[in-house]
Design brief:
Number of strands of chain A: 3
CATH topology of one domain in chain A: Arc Repressor Mutant, subunit A
Radius of gyration of chain A: 20 Å
Order of helices and strands of chain A: HHEHHEEHH
Strand order of the largest sheet of chain A: 1-3-2
Helix content of chain A: 55-70%
Shape of chain A: globular
Oligomer: homodimer
Strand content of chain A: 5-15%
CATH class of one domain in chain A: Mainly Alpha
Largest sheet of chain A: 3 strands, antiparallel
CATH superfamily of one domain in chain A: Winged helix-like DNA-binding domain superfamily/Winged helix DNA-binding domain
DNA sequence: GCCGAATAGTTCAACTTTCAAGAATGAGTC
DNA sequence: GACTCATTCTTGAAAGTTGAACTATTCGGC
């Protein structure tokens, strides 16, 4: 019925599944909020913006095409446009034309951007560590790391 | 040094930890985006708003004090105020004065709110199942459910 | 070369979130 | 009861996000 076009009873979640699902939502929102506040307070930007700077810092010549950056950060190009505009205003990123494709733009991390990363990386790593890894014994997560090697 | 007041080298993440951390961020953002889009498309509201309706639907008399709702949804009261205003405009929630505390307000799920939940619950459960539980063997998550019983 | 379709990126308007400030009520103390 | 302080909730402005529309450029076929 309804928009599902299906009169059969859906497979509801078991109590245990519901509980796991809620716990998951709680944990992830608390963690994301925590990191967002930490970075907003210390570095003056939200977590996702910080992630963009990190990506750029690890790219060759500290720059990436907009679409590449959007893909690796898992955000839309639109959102990235706004984000880069804001980061540019803060002086941490600069846009550069792409010579080989006149539609294209690079986002390049500026020296100020490097500096803001340098200053905030320790605090951020500490926050991640404290919130995540210090609470988990290696056996709790190392199995997830198989595909990392 | 700087704001950390510490000249010692911070404990950086190992390569494996970095990789796990990135995988975690990727997975959680993709999942959240997926569910947000599913609900925005089918139900006309973001995931968090849907969660508010669910909470209300399970509360006695389908209503909760604003602060209670904010706490259980892990959001600020301010954010909840705006959210409830929007849900009220959509007709799914109504505000009611609290007789015993004139500062207080209840958010109550309307019949239309019940209906929108009824229509969208199957699709949402299916999305959660498909994105989460169908991809995990029970042993991958059941250990997290110990505190759920 | 030219045309239509695809791609890169931006922009606009509507919406959501955040933070700080504010209005109203309650609760404890004298 | 008056004072102070805490609590409840709302508001307003600034910041961030979204999805669709838009511009400019490139690509593929002819």
């Amino acid at each position: 019925m309804g928009t599902m076009g299906d009169t059969t009873e859906p497979r509801w979640l078991t109590d245990e599944e519901q509980c796991v699902w809620r716990a998951y939502l709680h944990a992830t929102t608390l963690l994301e909020d925590h990191l967002d506040r930490q970075l907003q307070r210390d570095a003056g930007m939200p977590h996702i913006y910080y992630g963009l700077l990190v990506q750029l810092s690890q790219a060759p010549r500290r720059r990436l095409r907009m679409t590449e950056l959007a893909k690796s950060a898992k955000i839309t190009r639109s959102r990235l446009s706004h984000a880069v505009a804001r980061l540019e205003k803060s002086g941490w990123v600069r846009r550069e034309d792409c010579p080989s494709d006149k539609r294209g733009q690079f986002a390049r991390l500026t020296d100020e951007g490097v500096e803001v990363l340098r200053q905030n990386a320790p605090g951020h790593v500490a926050a991640v560590r404290q919130a995540m890894f210090d609470r988990l014994s290696p056996s709790r997560w190392s199995s997830s790391a198989r595909s990392c090697a």
